[in-house]
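Standup notes
- HV: blocked on the assembly model, inputs below
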Amino acid sequence: MLKVRVIPTLLWKQFGLVKGLGFDSWRRVGPVLPTIKVYNQREVDELVLVDIVAHQSNDDPDFESIDEFGQDCFVPLTVGGGITRIEQVQRLLRAGADKVSVNTAAYARPELVSEIAGRHGSQCVVASIDVRAHEDGWACFSHAGQNATGRDVVAWAREMEDRGAGEILLTSIDRDGTMQGYDLALIEAVVSAVRIPVIASGGAGSYQHMIDAVKQAGASAVAAASIFHFTEQTPAEAKAAMACAGIPIRQPFRG
Amino acid sequence: MRVGVIDYGVGNLGSVLRALEELRVSPVLVNRATDMHATTDCLILPGVGNFADCARLLNDGGWITALRDEVLGYKRPLLGVCVGMHLLADSSTEGATEDQSTSGLGFIPGQVRHLRSFGCTLRVPHVGWNSITPICPDDRLFAGIPAGTDFYFVHSYAFAPQNPADVLATTDYGGPVTAAVWRGHVWGTQFHPERSSRAGFRLLKNFIEGPTC
């Protein structure tokens, strides 16, 4: 049986990991490499690593740093931030990424998603979508939440699926860093609009929030950052709590 | 023992190389088909790619003939991972136009088709950790890996070998899905051992430490 994944999200800015509130007020939370090492030793299900300032320049992703970060990672690693061209993807895969997440560049040139899927397969490309709620829905924002794109989340998620994205990493900017719980209505709206897996992100503050995202809203996986950075709660305990709630989770290999 | 990792232009090579280094094996990254024979004892064909594109790259690089020589002629052990496993098949419908298919290496007879064509109604791609059931527990690849062990899968297409005896393990995703195949000294896994943490290390070790590797 397929297990529900608990995915720590690591946001990276220049030399270290950061975490914000509503995609703002970034706080430093520590160095990247030791954090990845610890998560790897604890056998988390997967990791997402995003360079949150890469979109500000036209430079390539920082391949050297990613190569260094990947050296102690033996669980799937999704890398995002600053991916604008297909050529960059193979370099990221060589550096230790298994999947790439595309966000800002997809609004300017949605064909990028089709190109990556055509070369590396749909399963290699994660469409990362950041949204803010408004009166009757959710609007998509690019550039780490800075720019309104004029796109509605449901229409955009469908377009990403049609263009070959293999998963959607769906983040509520309003809930980000608040630890008040995921936006369940948002997750449900996207889950019911597409037939690819949806990863819930933004707002996790307790294990119950993760259970709700899966059981009530239908998320295939839950991503979280603040809860692991700023509280005593851990991915292993989250999975234990989810198992108690009847959600299938992965048991570590004891062979 | 020299483990060659075939670099044909696609694949999560960084992850594969690091997993081997973790096992204290010094992998040889082979980027020219003509170098394969002299520099390696056994081979890993990695995968993260679209079948049609991968088959074209294998062909353009002269890998198809070279791999046939190594595997069929010299009986070199080979492990294909994910799309690398699919490439062991006769053909695949991935990336091909309607009703067409692209030829693979043909080491294990059978076809690769979309999960939906097997009747899967769940979300596709099949992404995440899923438990495997070895069908032939005596095979060396799954030595010490009990039924129910979780491995990391990420795929939209699956391999249906012509001969059911070539299926080494299955998983369940809206129906049975081939998780591993085997014929003689050729193995393939649908899941990614290089990303399956300790269970994956055990499987890679089993492959590398086999009598013929």
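- HV (later): unblocked. Chain A has one domain: 5-244. The domain at 5-244 of chain A is CATH 3.20.20.70 (TIM Barrel).
- Next: hand off to the docking folks.
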